[in-house]
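Input (structure):
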């Protein structure tokens, strides 16, 4: 009986076989009474872990692919929106704004003040075109003209014509409108005074001097080199001018022979003999105090080019008590119609 019981005990029962065949079950004896730590799990355990891993990876892949699909959809929609926006922007750039007729801009220009002409001209091409017409400058002159005793004859109403009208109107406004708006007794005018160093790299096209009551005045007319080149090109093109083109030049509103020119006026207590520098380029400028700290010493270096190393002539003015840089619209600028007289001493000799 004992032997039979032992045999029956050795045989695996149905329940035991079912428990052994259960997927993923491990006995306590497999882990607690093991002689060494097993490096490999049972086949059943490995199958379960593989199945679990496969299911988890499938779920993760579904989630990931679902997210990527949503992201792709979002990217696609954003890309389409950006394309639509870029197309709309291109269409707006091509058809931006409304092109108003020139008559409307002419009506608006009648309410533009002289100091706002530059801003008005930069609005669009149509507004800029208005500022190039004689109608605009005639209306501006009539609206802001005031009688001034010192106004030259060329700037008076009876002498106004299309040729060079723009420059004449600007000069006339500086005689009456801008002087009254800024005030004649302006104590801050010296802060707006330019320095002689700003005239470097300009070519001297004229120089003269004249005697005053107490002092001597020396004038140097300096012009931008680029303006000189452009004027020479225009002169060469106008050599074979036809009759129609000649009439067009007579109606040119923007003609200004003094464009790009500035005059350096230096006042001295004593006369100084100076070498001629007409046709030379101003290269260097230096101002120093003389002994006594009351007068200045102005030194101007001229050469054939704008390179300082090619200095050829130097002008030294002593006992300088003041200087000023005059633009072509300044009332003190020596225009031909102003009637400046140049007085030279009798015994005057030039040192070269």
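Output (sequence):
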């Amino acid at each position: 009986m004992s032997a039979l019981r032992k045999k029956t005990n050795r045989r695996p029962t149905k329940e035991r076989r079912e428990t052994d065949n259960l997927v993923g079950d491990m006995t306590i004896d497999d882990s607690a009474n093991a002689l060494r730590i097993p490096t490999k799990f049972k086949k059943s355990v490995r199958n379960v872990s593989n199945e679990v891993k496969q299911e988890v990876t499938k779920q993760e892949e579904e989630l990931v692919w679902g997210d990527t699909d949503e992201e792709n959809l979002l990217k696609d929609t954003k890309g389409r929106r950006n394309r639509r926006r870029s197309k709309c922007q291109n269409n707006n750039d091509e058809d931006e704004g409304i092109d108003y007729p020139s008559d409307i801009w002419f009506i608006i220009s009648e309410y533009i003040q002289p100091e706002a002409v530059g801003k008005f001209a930069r609005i669009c091409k149509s507004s800029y075109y208005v500022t190039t017409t004689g109608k605009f400058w005639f209306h501006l002159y009539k609206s802001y003209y005031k009688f001034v005793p010192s106004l030259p004859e060329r700037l008076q109403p009876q002498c106004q014509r299309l040729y060079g009208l723009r420059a004449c109107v600007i000069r006339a406004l500086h005689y009456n409108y801008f002087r009254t708006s800024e005030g004649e007794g302006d104590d801050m005018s010296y802060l707006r005074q330019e320095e002689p160093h700003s005239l470097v790299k300009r070519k001297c096209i004229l120089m003269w001097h004249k005697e005053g009551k107490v002092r001597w005045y020396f004038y140097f007319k300096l012009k931008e080199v680029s303006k000189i080149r452009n004027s020479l090109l225009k002169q060469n093109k106008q050599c074979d001018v036809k009759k129609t083109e000649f009439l067009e030049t007579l109606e040119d509103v923007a003609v200004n022979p003094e464009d790009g020119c500035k005059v350096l006026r230096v006042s001295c207590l004593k006369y100084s003999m100076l070498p001629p520098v007409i046709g030379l380029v101003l290269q260097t400028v230096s101002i120093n105090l003389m002994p006594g700290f009351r007068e200045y010493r102005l030194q101007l270096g001229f050469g054939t080019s704008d390179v300082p190393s090619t200095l050829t002539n130097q002008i030294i003015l002593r006992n300088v008590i003041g200087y000023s840089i005059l633009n072509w619209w300044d009332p003190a600028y020596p225009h031909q119609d102003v009637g400046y007289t140049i007085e030279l001493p009798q015994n005057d000799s030039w040192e070269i």
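Notes: The two ends are 151 Å apart (CA to CA). Confidence is low (pLDDT under 50) at residues 63-68, 340-352.
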